Amino acid sequence: MRYQQLLLAVDLQHEASHLIQRAAKLAHRMNAELTLLSVIPVADEKAVTESELWHLKRHSLDYLTRITSALPCHIRRYQVEAGEVMEQIHFALRELQPDLLILGHRQANGLLAHWRTSLAERLPPSTRYDVLILDDDSPFWSAPLHFTLALTLHPSGQTRLHRAATFANWLEAALTVIHVLEPVAEAQLAIELEQESQHWLESRKSRAEHQLADWMAHLAGPLPRWEVLSGDAASLLSQHMKQSRDALLIVGSEDQEDEHWTSGYHLHALLQHKGDVLVMR
Hints:
Elements: E1 5-10, H1 17-30, E2 33-41, H2 50-68, E3 74-83, H3 85-96, E4 100-104, H4 108-113, H5 118-121, E5 130-134, E6 145-150, H6 155-170, E7 173-181, H7 184-194, H8 197-216, E8 225-230, H9 233-244, E9 248-252, H10 263-270, E10 276-280
Parallel strand pairs: 1-2, 1-4, 2-3, 4-5, 6-7, 6-9, 7-8, 9-10
Antiparallel strand pairs: 5-10
Domain UspA: 3-133, 153-272
Family: Belongs to the universal stress protein A family.
Protein name: Universal stress protein
């Protein structure tokens, strides 16, 4: 699996040169084309004169071209728009059809706030993209690379495992797969019904390990390290990323039967640690 068309939505109200450099280096490493989108957050375009808006757009475009002039990647296009930020990002996604949307950590709250809005639901089915949220202050990935995949055992998880393993192999990164059992509510039910919560938890863990082993057997290339943990997923994954210092955490989204694994549930907590997060949709 590889990404060929990258869209970086950059907020020029914050220092963005390092974020742009990171995205450009990633595009170069992936041999992909990069589009840069900047949105001037104008709630009411009528409140700004055409001359003022033109100068704002011109200034933004000049900045983007200057920052990227010496970067080793192919720039597909520069795009500067004015209006509501997430609306303009969605318009660009619909028009450009990228494989990967890149945002900085400083924009993550805006993304999460609109993650499940009706605006997103209006996107055509062909608009399918993953989201990479880069830490604005981290250095670019350096060898040896290590990635972590937080995996659900919902059927969609097997597809995500194959995609993540292929992506890691392509970038010559070692992959660790983690599945977390969050048994609080179900364990309480087991206590009430059977008074055997520990036995229930061990049984769940054993089934999860067998499921993961079966999925691993169908992978091509080097097999990832994997483990099944029990507890609060956000806390355990954040702790793992701090201790391992892996370059990238890969999570899923929109697994309807595993609501606690959706990006909207855990992503805000996961972004509190320093590092990059790839949301595979």
